[in-house]
Here is the input.
Amino acid sequence: MVSIVFAGVGGQGLITAANMVGKAAVTEGKNVLMTELHGMAQRGGSILVEVRIGDYKSAIIPLGMADVIVGFEKLETARNLPKLKKGGTILLNERRIHPISLTIKKESYPDLAIEERLKDHNPIKVEADQIALDLDNKRVVNTVMTGALFSTGLLEISEESLHAAIKGSFPEKLWEANFKAFEAGKRLSQVQATRVL
Amino acid sequence: MQYDTLLGPEGQTEFLLGNEAVARGIYEAGVSVAATYPGTPSSEIGDVLYRISDRMGIKFEFATNEKVALEIAAAASAGGLRSFVFMKHVGLNVAMDSFVSLSGAGVKGGMVVLSADDPSMHSSQNEQDNRFLGKFAKTIVIEPSSPQELKDFIVMAFDLSEEVGHPVLLRSATRISHVRAPVRFGAAKDKKGWKYQKDPSFLLLPENAYKAQISINERLKRVTNSRYSENFNRVYGDSSTLIITSGAAYNYVDEALQMLNVKARVMKIGLSFPLDLDVVSKEIGKAERVVFIEEGGPFLEEQVLSFSALHSINREFHGKLSGSVPASYEMNVDRLVGFLSKIFGIDFPVKDKTLGLPERAITLCPGCPHRATYYVVKMAMKQKGIKNAIVPTDIGCYTLGYYEPYQLGDFVFSMGSSIGSSNGFTANAGERVISFIGDSTFFHSGIPALINAYHNNHNFVVVILDNFITAMTGGQPTPETSPPFRRVDIESVVRGIGIKNVFTIDPYDLNNSLSIFKKALDSKELAVVISKRECALEVDRKRSPSEIKVFQVNQDKCSLCYNCVSNFSCAAFYIDNGKVEIDPELCDGCSVCSEPLVCPFNAIEVKP
Here is the structure.
């Protein structure tokens, strides 16, 4: 049983990442639920995707019950902290996407407020955007994050199933790029996250 | 192809979105005809059918609005085919006139109407509970809880509808239609053949409608008498507390009880109207306390409580009517724990979820043509000295014009209400009225209101934001989409009414747009501006990211006037230490911000 929060901004590919995890779980005959919220905006709004693997009926994770937050963007990662278990794992992509509501007021990104809230949780840093750039494919950020999530050991899903899910999620010409992205993400956090029971 | 897996054999299990499970469900049910008007949270059903309905043997149409969609399906059913129509909850309001008649006429081929409700209004103007509309129209109402049940109940609903000769309203909700889960496939049934026979029950003039009232009640009675409820309802657990629940709300019950460490007997209702009150009352007879947990209004609660009053059944009832269950917004485990702990008398700590971080306001996408239109309209209004215009707007991405800095939008009720209300504003107000409507919305229900405006000589400005697509629901076609469909030209429709002041602009051409809008604002009679440019997301879908020439701010030239961030306000702009920057990952390369009308200092240039 594991509950995962994917937090980020519209356009970052969170739904595809969560969907890969879901497909992989189904391949292994596991029960899995996924729900997504993105309001009215097609791009640029907050996105929360929740995935629960195991004997659940509610796709929505209750407060304080998520084992891990897969944070695609800093502010959105911090925003979803109330969902995280005490001692839960945070994977933090260093990406900052500035809310237009701050920009209009000529305000900068709220780095201090975010770091203040994240500091007690020892987030595992993942430079997914940089890795994607190095791999020459900006669109594989989500697969890097999926690789990082796999490396935490929290998923209890085999690498083979995730590879099959990558194949099921992208056209063949993108398989190789996504396998590389998955590998890169996997290597990132050597730290095995401890599971909080 | 993307949705090939939905055609898989019986026994296959796939990880599906609720809406994808619906598409599989109608395939299994042997449906021949399906129609819709896109609306969240039901839109993806149409996305699937648009791509693979041919291979499912289903004739599928995106209709101009929900009423037309329902009538397409009703006609197919009259000819003995199984037919399906689906929409978001407020879409059923549009289809309501024919929906109520459908109940009176009854069906030949099975017919199911799916309504995807949106509790908490994630993308809607209200959270109406359409089970009440089903009961009002006297249709059968069925409520699944999960993607698997969505699919299974659809197949069962078609059998029920056909056996009884009555339409079924299948009520889904955001947290069913937009939940993904494993769905196990069943076998696909054969389709019925076309067999139309004239029948007076389809022609609801008073004589026939009078008789229909009797047959409606007979058909509903048959649903209860034949114990169809056994197929849809479930009860489990042992306790003197009975929880009566249904739909998405059911999904939270077990986990909440577990967190509170209490027990209850749970009655999960799938057939919500006509409710099998014999079976329900037997359960109530064994209970001391009854709690109703429903997504939406007190639908089951009202039926049970009126039955209990009639039969003098007295219990400790808790629900939305008694006030112990909150009346509004989507349910979840945390909310259930909150009110159940009080009902069970347990002290349970309330968790705080406020962190005081800045909100991320929703905004138009980078490159969105609507932004350019709004920017220029504001400028034209300013140059014409118009300070207090009334701005009715409509349902679509452009409703976001309400937000800062554009603040263009102060009245929206429903699809088409922009032009409809503009008639009333113009007739009574001294202020200039500027009305915004999208292309798909214009076809959906803007046209009758525009005819009204011309006919009654109302003078206002209508701006039709034409991006060739139903954008907010994910990019479905509109009557302008062709081939293979025949293209309807908006300007020809507008001119066909007789309106003379019609202008078509490219919103990216700021200078020309500005002079046209000033002309329209000066007009002494009804003026229509069609602002025409393809949705930026559609453009993106057709090109690779490497083709985008992104822009940057030349800091040597930037005068820090902040006009670009304060008034144009593209989401790709950001402020770093007081300097204006452009996020290269977000920039769409539209180039509009580099125009002198946005940056008079020519500081925004193509990034080398």
About this structure: Chain B touches chain A through 62 residues (CB under 8 Å). Chain B has a mean pLDDT of 97. Chain B has 20 helices and 22 strands. The CA atoms of residues 325 and 339 of chain B lie 6 Å apart.
